[in-house]
């Protein structure tokens, strides 16, 4: 830790706080004693300038458009690795050896089935329930089925719960999809890799053999990699806060899924595709750009902008490349939504409003076009995001639980309500 300090003059006194440097990226001012020393809180709604924790998992440089997982650039992981390798890296901090990778794949593969009684759990939902509602409910209920891995003080139970979640999320997601479309559930198949198994559980039917297209499976695997983890985003912060109270890991992940569902966060991929569909054609783009710039219009370009990236989201570039690969493999030549998306991106990136506010496409801008081409309905897009992000949530939760200085998260507030006043009996009220 450096011996740098930051000085603050407040309430007639001089106060000094330690400044800690990270390996790379911004330093932090440790204000944990601020309230005790000054009687004042910091104020940072939306946490634009607040570091909530010390983490070694993911680093983002928003100005450069850099994303590292345990130091490895996302571009290299997406190009050369596979999703379960990235899961191992996020969880354990190093790329696995050949033996470690084989063992990890074996353990995940053999946790993919869910308790048979969970089938009955699904039948409680309406068929037209949004798959994200099903995911929230079903994942939250996992602690009712796997109570033998909810003691977070036991490292073995933490590991079992982690493997169960990473392994079972694709199965639960596929079941949510099959239930939504009224088709029978498809069991996982252990001789398939993670992404192939997921595609088969979603798109196979009992009436015929299902052959996984390796190009599409590779694209699905890469989409999982791109969504695996992203520092202290809203849903990850939700998982950390839930976990800080000692809640079981299944409940914490269910909380993360609920937060991810919002259109400002993981729900943006579904919203972005719906927006592209609403725009419909290139000639209507100027109308929507004007709406996005109009302060009185709540409309925003979904898939654009980011709290951290003030440059191109590196994942969006890889996503765009994957989109072309998938459309090419499927022989989809002139996807009208892709045409609108590319023209919209071109116009927006040269428009002063977007340039000045540093609004670039984020990962959600192209993912929807790819997922639709793979055969998923828009209602499944955020579910796929949740499947991939589960490993990030788990890795961040694990890092927090294993941090000896970990305490329950309990922010304070700036109170602007009524000062103390006495109760007025009903017969005295006007
Ligand atoms: C994800 O945090 C993460 O890492 C998230 C994520 C992950 O992997 O976990 O990367 C995944 O959630 C990506 C973001 C997906 N969301 C969207 O695409 C929804 C559209 N984008 C926005 O709603 C917005 O950009 C956010 C929510 C992403 C970021 O919001 P901020 O940081 O609070 O920024 P802001 O809303 O204060 O916007 C700053 C300015 C505002 O204008 P002013 O008030 O300063 O005049 O930019 C404008 C906004 O009006 N603006 C947009 C815009 N996004 C921001 N204007 C038009 N269209 C947009 N998309």
List descriptors:
single chain; 430 residues; mainly alpha; 3-stranded antiparallel beta sheet; 6 strands; binds s-citryldethia Coenzyme A
Would you kindly provide a written description of the structure presented here, covering whatever features stand out?
The chain has 18 helices and six strands. It has 430 residues and is mostly helical. The strands form two sheets. The chain has a three-stranded antiparallel sheet with strand order 1-2-3. β2 and β3 form a beta hairpin. α9 packs antiparallel against α17. Bound molecules: s-citryldethia Coenzyme A. S-citryldethia Coenzyme A (SDX) binds next to α17.
Please give the order of strands in the largest beta sheet.
1-2-3
- Look at the structure and give the mean pLDDT: 95
Low-confidence stretches: none
Described by the principal axes of the CA atoms, the overall outline is globular
Q: Compute the number of strand runs.
A: 6
The succession of helices and strands, N to C, reads EEEHEEEHHHHHHHHHHHHHHHHH
Structural class by helix and strand composition:
mainly alpha
Beginning-to-end CA distance, first to last residue = 62 Å
Level of helix content?
40-55%
